[in-house]
Amino acid sequence: MAAPNKGRRPAAGGQSKPGRALAFILIAMVALTGGMFWSHHTTPRLGIDLAGGTSITLKAKPEPGQESAINKANMETAVGIMNRRVNGLGVTEAEVQTQGNDNIIVNIPKGTDSEQARQQVGQTAKLYFRPVLTAQPTAAPAPSASPSGSTGGKPTPGASGKGTPSSPPNASGKPKASSSPSAGSTTKGRAVSDALKASGSPTPSAGKPSSPAPDPSASSADSAAAAKLQAQFAALDCSTPAARAKAGAGAKPTDPTVACAQTGEEKYVLGPAEVAGTDVAKSQAVINQNGQWIVQMDFTGGGSKKFASITGKLSQQQYPNNRFAIALDNQVVSAPTVSSTLSGSAEISGNFNQKSAQDLANVLSYGALPLTFQEQSVTTVTAALGADQLHAGLIAGAIGLALVIIYLVAYYRGLALIAILSLVVSAILTYTIMALLGPGIGFALNLPAVCGAIVAIGITADSFIVYFERIRDEIREGRTLRPAVERAWPRARRTILVSDFVSFLAAAVLFIVTVGKVQGFAFTLGLTTLLDVVVVFLFTKPVMTLLARRKFFASGHPWSGLDPKRLGAKPPLRRARRTTSAPVDNPKEA
């Protein structure tokens, strides 16, 4: 008597628990749909060709004596930097192009924060680290736009590098200034004077500005320059954003200058720049140990040495001459004190939220513009193609989908139900992800992207056809449906993966080597190709496994699409049984 078979070997490619895969994809669909409604972005953002947007015209302004800087090379460099600022991932559909010899046109799709975009594209983003020679609170500080579009408030002086972070000068983080001349003021003024003399620069007085006091040993030219700088500092107005933007205009990095804090609460006399933005290798927005958003900058090798040199000198000074200002476009973002030599990296802290910190890090990462630009006009533009073209594109997609469904029903009959359900699942995933990518990475759906989604219908349907044909091949070999479904899966899976890999590779190459609207087509094609793999593995195969247990499909109903007679199936495969008979003694009896 044969021993009972204690364990049955599952069929090749078998999936014992299809319910798990279906539960997983159902949870994913519910989560994405819930996230879409929770974010209040229930429709994908449309590109400028479908929804219109904002057009910004910028005019290049040469620095005094540098009129020749406005040339084709610098304009193209500026276009590239602006494009990376507003279209970092290549899917926001923003357009940046030159017009004439000195104008740049920036087109931003509807739904994008136009104010933020205006700040990013027009900001020169020239970053310098300058020693603070004189600092004085303004008479009437006014709330204003804080660093890179923050919600307001004053930046906390707190930048540091790798090493021992410095501490603010007092509990509030704001320097104290004497209201009248004193010994402290005299010492402070002498430190400023010594610093300016060392750099060959004019000498302002510290604390409350007073009439210029020329150095007897200085030349008349130095005295005139000192008087001019002193007058600029005394008359410096930091009460409005426009006034703060004009402070120190035209000053060279090698010269001392006056500047305002971005908050307007303090004004400064700053020494020559010791470290420039070109010495920053990378910047990123991070959360510090106190849970506050900061912008962290990593220096290049040369920049790290410069930063160590200046912080080493400043750490030996007394307050306020141990401060250095982080000046962005000649406005002081932060002015921390230094207590030790620092190198490697620095931090810009302030009243940042996530968005403002990321905006500033984004501007610094892509570098400073080679030219200064002035905003000429901001206008609203209408859709280049409009609703009619979008409507026509959607009709074309609907016609294509209908033709695919008709073919599936006519040729695969009952199996078409699985294909249609899979297409519905793919459509839900695609729509919700596109809607969430709008606020997430700025993705905007343009007409080429719509074309990519339409092409993806054929790619997805092709995966179903491959699997169905493999199942039919197994049935033609004489197998019943349930083992045919499991045996067909490994071969179909390999074919589907190879096909989708080729499609995804083509989309990736197209995305990398192209610019503009073609990137939208490539991005959508790559996204839908990945979703095709997810749907086939987590929905189509498990559903096919479950339906193979139903009598309608298992019995080969004529409308199931798996009728063995219609497919020309061979007789069922069965093992030949060996029969043994007892030996016969008498041949005649046999």
- What is the terminal separation in angstroms? 27 Å
Q: What Rg do the Cα atoms give?
A: 36 Å
Percent range for β-strand residues: 5-15%
What level of helicity do the residues show?
Answer: 40-55%
In the predicted model, the low-confidence regions spanning at least 5 consecutive residues are 1-15, 141-192, 202-215
Largest sheet: 5 strands, mixed, barrel
Mean pLDDT comes to 75
Tally the helices: what do you get? 16
What can you see in these coordinates?
The protein has 16 helices and 13 strands. With 590 residues, it is an alpha+beta fold. The chain has a five-stranded mixed β-barrel with strand order 4-6-5-11-10. A four-stranded antiparallel sheet has the order 2-3-1-13. A three-stranded antiparallel sheet has the order 8-9-12. Helix 1 runs antiparallel to helix 14 and helix 3 packs antiparallel against helix 4.
